[in-house]
Amino acid sequence: MGDVADINQSNLTYDGWRHCEKAITFAGGTTNAIGDHDGTGNPFDIFTVTGDVKVKVVAVCTTTLVGASSTLEVGTSGGTAVIIAQTTGTDIDVGEIWHDATPDADIELSSVAKEYIVANGKDVIGTVGTANITAGVIRFTVMWKAVSRNGDLIAA
Fold first, then answer.
1. CB within 8 A of 14, min separation 6: which ones?
2. Which of 47, 66, 99, 146 is 20 to 30 Å from the Cα of 60, by its Cα?
3. Closest by Cα among 81, 86, 83, 80 to 56
4. Of 66, 54, 86, whose CA–CA distance to 25 is shortest?
5. 13-61 tens-digit pLDDT
6. 74 pairs with which residues across the strands?
7. From residue 144, how far is each of 5, 13, 26, 53 by CA, in Å?
């Protein structure tokens, strides 16, 4: 096993997979901040992609999300809920692994991290819907491999 990356960094790690992390802090009570569902910070970039890459994304909540009636999803501009399904923001609690519409555990089978191919340099994004997420932090972790010669991924 190679070196494990620091937060918001990318290094070669497991069986040719690269590892990258990005912590997102929600502050939707502030105009245009991440979490403001109708502001300029929505959708927000999590990972910047060049070329074509395979990705497996897992999100772990490190501070419970706040925001009545808010929703959150992860995908690309071509499908904003493709990677992690839309979820009620207040259902994402500290310590939970968020990988589908029902975050509910602090331990999951590794098979819940579905593998996707992201093509044409489409960035991995988060989208806040319905209402603001006014507080909370999620750490997004991605394992990724290049598919095309110019395939690359970094924390946004």
1. 1, 2, 143
2. 146
3. 83
4. 66
5. 567 899 999 999 999 999 999 999 999 999 999 999 999 999 999 999 9
6. 84, 126
7. 13, 10, 25, 7
The closest of 64, 63, 80 to 123, measured between CA atoms, is: 80
Amino acid at 66: V
Distance CA 108, CA 146 (A): 26
CB 50 within 8 A of CB 42: no
Q: Tokens representing 31?
A: 């105009």
Give residue for tokens 């690269």.
18
Read off the pLDDT of residues 66-125 as tens digits, 9 standing for 90 and up: 999 999 999 999 999 999 999 999 999 999 999 999 888 888 888 888 999 999 999 999
d(CA 88, CA 125): 17
